[in-house]
Automatic annotation (TrEMBL):
It comes from Streptomyces radicis. Its main location: membrane. One of its GO terms (cellular component) is plasma membrane. Residues 1-35 are annotated as: Disordered. It is a multi-pass membrane protein. PANTHER family: CORA FAMILY METAL ION TRANSPORTER (EUROFUNG). It catalyses: Mg(2+)(in) = Mg(2+)(out). GO terms for molecular function: cobalt ion binding; cobalt ion transmembrane transporter activity; magnesium ion binding; magnesium ion transmembrane transporter activity. The keyword Nuclease does not apply. Mediates influx of magnesium ions. Alternates between open and closed states. Activated by low cytoplasmic Mg(2+) levels. Inactive when cytoplasmic Mg(2+) levels are high. The lineage of its organism: Bacteria, Bacillati, Actinomycetota, Actinomycetes, Kitasatosporales. This is Magnesium transport protein CorA. The chain crosses the membrane at residues 315-334, 346-366.
Length: 372
């Protein structure tokens, strides 16, 4: 089943309109608070009726008052890293639960879905792949942020934390396809979840490239140079960040596909199943990557152990060879007056010959057995 955003893109292409273009034909970045005339934290606020945006710039209090005077539309308020004082007015205006408000302000939450009276509260972890020229033991690979979504019967409040995961382009995509936005606040929730999970897929693919690079370095013939275990361990830690974002989201998406949440449109519920399928795919990939990195780390440690054993065998072999002249010379170095061959003309050449022959035989034997 195609998800809602892909269906919207296909519909836009059939109408000959570029997907993701706003009314002016260009994409506007609404992610920066400094560009918003609505305040420090409020990025955007608009009324939607029948999927069509009614006002370009209006405050949240005016917007919700306008919608409730004339039912049938909803308000979408977007905020970026609001403080307690900044968010308290919005929370009071929409009747948001204090526990959910605390989570939205302080962030650092696990992905979850909670129902407070008639308001649905969802937390999603956003991820971004951090580009780097070369993976090191301190490289940052996965950067995470958060998006909190409050969904009521006539409003959507989104709170974003982090420097990525902007919802501005997503808002414009939905505004370009009012037939889907007309399904109400749950359509916005689906679009956000779909975008977040799509980013998971992109990041998982990029992380796979790093894993392939590390795997190649471990098994490559580098003539004595071994792969840095710190790189492998750092990649595992960064993969854990992705896993923490992906794994806990499975249950919330399953809940959104089930009946019993009146603020989720029945048609939208079907699209959440598609998002859930994509999440399962990402979760399987991340689990596979985690197992693969463990295997690479074990292989690297095994290589180190084998190399150390080889070094010890070489040292032992050379010590055994050196022991022959040491022993012979030690015997003939004793200061006894009466010793065999001590005054014999051929004594010295014979001893040297015995030493060289014994050392040569030991060297050939160790060489044949792969110790040297």
């Amino acid at each position: 089943m195609r998800n809602l955003r892909k269906a919207a893109q296909a519909a836009g292409e059939r109408r000959g309109r570029p997907v993701g273009d706003g009314p002016s034909g260009g994409r506007v970045d609404l992610s920066h608070p400094g560009r918003s005339p609505l305040g420090n934290a409020v990025v955007n606020c608009a009324i939607y009726r029948d999927g069509v945006r009614q006002h370009a710039a209006i405050g949240p209090d005016e917007a919700i008052a306008h919608v409730r005077k004339r039912p049938g539309g909803f308000v979408w308020v977007g905020l970026h890293e609001p403080g307690e004082e900044e968010f308290s007015g919005v929370a009071e205006l929409f009747g948001l639960h204090p526990l959910a408000v605390e989570d939205a302000v302080h962030a650092h939450q696990r992905p979850k879905l909670e129902l407070y009276d008639e308001t649905l509260f969802m937390v999603l972890k956003t991820v971004r792949y951090v580009e780097h020229d070369r993976l090191t033991s301190t490289s940052e690979v996965v950067d995470t942020g958060e998006v909190m979504v409050f969904v009521g019967k006539d409003f959507v409040v989104t709170v974003r934390h982090g420097g990525h995961g902007s919802l501005g382009p997503l808002r414009e995509q939905l505004e370009a396809h009012p037939e889907h936005l007309a399904k109400g606040p749950s359509a916005v929730l689906h679009a956000i979840a779909d975008q977040v999970v799509d980013h998971y897929l992109d990041v998982a693919g990029a992380v796979r490239d790093d894993i392939d690079e590390v795997e190649a370095s471990v098994f490559a013939d580098t003539r004595g140079r071994r792969a840095d275990p710190g790189q492998i361990y750092q990649l595992k830690r960064e993969l854990l960040e992705l896993k923490r974002a992906v794994a806990p989201l499975d249950r919330p998406l399953q809940q959104l596909t089930e009946a019993g949440l009146p603020m989720v449109d029945q048609d939208i519920r079907r699209y959440f199943r598609d998002v859930s399928d994509h999440l399962t795919r990402v979760s399987d990939q991340v689990s596979g990557y985690d197992f693969l990195i463990d295997s690479i780390l074990q292989a690297n440690l095994a290589q180190v152990t084998v190399a150390q054993n080889e070094d010890m065998r070489k040292i032992t072999a050379w010590a055994a060879i050196i022991a022959v002249p040491t022993m012979v010379c030690g015997v003939y170095g004793m200061n006894f007056q009466y010793m065999p061959e001590l005054h014999w003309r051929f004594g010295y050449p014979l001893v040297i010959g015995v030493i060289l022959t014994a050392c040569s035989l030991l060297y050939r034997g160790f060489r044949r057995n792969g110790w040297l």
